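Hey team,

Filing this mostly as a record. A colleague (T.K.) asked me to run one chain through the structure pipeline before their review meeting, and I want the input and output archived in the tracker in case anyone asks later how it was produced. No errors, nothing strange. Just documentation.

Input sequence:
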Amino acid sequence: MNDAAGWLAQHGIREVECLVPDMNGYLRGKVLPVDKFLKAVDGAQLYMPTSVLLVCADGRYSGSLDQAFAFGDPDMQIVLDLDSLCLSSGSQPRRALVIADACYPADRLWSALPRTLLKSVLSLYAEKGWRAVVAPELEFYLTAPNPDPRDPLVAPTSAAGRQERSQNPYDMEALAAFGPVTRRIYEHCAIAGVDVDTLSHETGSAQIEVNLLHGDPLRLADQVVMFKRIARDAALTQGMHATFMAKPTDAQPGSAMHLHVSLTDAAGDNLFADADGIDTPMFRHFMGGLQKYIPEALPLFAPSVNSYRRIRPNHSAPANVEWSHDNRSCGLRVPNAGRDARRVENRLPGADANPYLAIAATLLCGYLGVEERLERSPEALGNVYLAPSTLPRSMLHGLERLAACGPMRNLLGEDFMTIFLRVKDRELDAFDTVVTAWEREHLLLKA
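Output structure:
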């Protein structure tokens, strides 16, 4: 943005939210008066403690790297990405937001951070003359307020005055019953520049899916984190919650973040199909890389213990890395499309995945496949939910496989791996201390 001051004045902006996505994709940051923000635009330095981005999902610090680093808690310098500056779409008037990166040390972007990692992956692609194009599909549930997290979630009361108790996939009347929420989502996405393509009612009770328009991976990752914020705010205005948990309720389908990915050359020609519309060797190798390395990198697509409750056969989520044309029981689907739109849909990431990491990991798996000239398996046919799964069944197993995968570890970098594994180990340890309702139900009076 060449004239940030003029743009802020035009919109009457008084405050700017400076946001840095952390390891889980949660937005950390601070609110700046517009004068201080403009000083930062002109070169004044902004700082935040490094510990802010090393926080676990439960709010505890992970104590990453080493004790001196953890307890010294040095500052990182914040670098504003003015291309992301937009109007805030929440309930705060006269406020804008900007997404930022962080430098640590001060002379370079901190390679451990998810947004920086995605940038480095895109640079790796640029060196090859490739341009990645992505389109996320994001599912979420609307629920009644859940003030006590020990209580199960229940569907909200819609504008029709009823709770959904049955499945209503693509039902327009069911979608219309949540019109006050979805209209606000559309309005606020337009304000924030989030490019919503379509919105529909998914299979689960009060489950919604939004498709974002395809484009640059970094911009789309930014839009995903902004969309989540918009959806939560829109739901709250109607007395509801919006949740992007992968598996929020026992009996309902999980929520995914499907990623459609294609590659083009500098001229914009699709690299996955030749002039006759036939899959190129590059497409086969890219898919072979996804098949080999997604099981090794699953924590980047399934970041919590809850994520693994979704990835189970016959739970409307594939538990495999088979591929096929237009078969949603496969983890890797090739949609029916012409040459220019030839792409692969990675159906394994959950809605809870950090979009920067899920997109970066998809591109890295495919990159390794092209570099190693891996061949994809024969096309899977029929009900592939029945296929044997090569995916980790638990968060612990997933973290162990990621830590042991040399090619993926080399591309992700030791800074990232050290911090990511430390954060996830702490989250897993915290979960393992919790006694669940299932244990009390079945063991309390019988064991």
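Quick notes for T.K.: The chain has 14 helices and 14 strands. The two ends are 65 Å apart (CA to CA).
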